[in-house]
Amino acid sequence: MNRFLRYSAIALALFSIVGCCSLPDTALTEEDKATLTSMIDDGLEHMRARDFAAWTANFAEDAVLMPPNGPTVTGPAALQAWAEAMPGWEDATWPNVMISGEGNMAYGSSDYTLKLEGMPEDRGKQLVVFRRKEGGEWKAVAVSFNSDLPIQIPAMMPVEE
């Protein structure tokens, strides 16, 4: 048998084996979705209460936060320091939470409204990426949020001639 026929026969055999096997169902369960929605809701309550230790407990050790107009924050200790430096929360909501994903990766998104002490109200959107650890526990691995409001550009100073 020439080399081409031999490789063709091997390839055909492999395709036949792979073709008869189906991939396992990797869709998120309703329980997964409820757990992840609860993590997002609990995160809001922890931030409102300034319980940053409880807030960071939902993050993986290598988690990143990408806040608007600032550098990336990495790891629970840095996340807690970042949160502690924020002004108090007068009011906040995270409406329209949606969860999607498959297997051991999922993401949640929502809108937000946020009123911090001494600042105007902001509104925008957020994205949270989750990973399931061995044993089934979900942890947040990445969070990004940004405002829907236009950037406030200060008035130009007159140029002296």
Automatic annotation (TrEMBL):
The record's annotation in Pfam families points to:
DUF4440 (PF14534)
Give the residue range of the signal peptide.
1-27
Determine if Signal is one of this entry's keywords. yes
| Entry-linked SUPFAM superfamilies | NTF2-like
UniProt xrefs under InterPro entries: DUF4440, NTF2-like_dom_sf
Question: What keywords sit in the KW lines?
Answer: Signal
Residue ranges of domain DUF4440 in the record:
40-139
PROSITE patterns with a match to the protein in the record = PROKAR_LIPOPROTEIN (PS51257)
Tree of life domain: Bacteria
Q: What is this protein called in UniProt?
A: Nuclear transport factor 2 family protein
Source species: Candidatus Polarisedimenticola svalbardensis
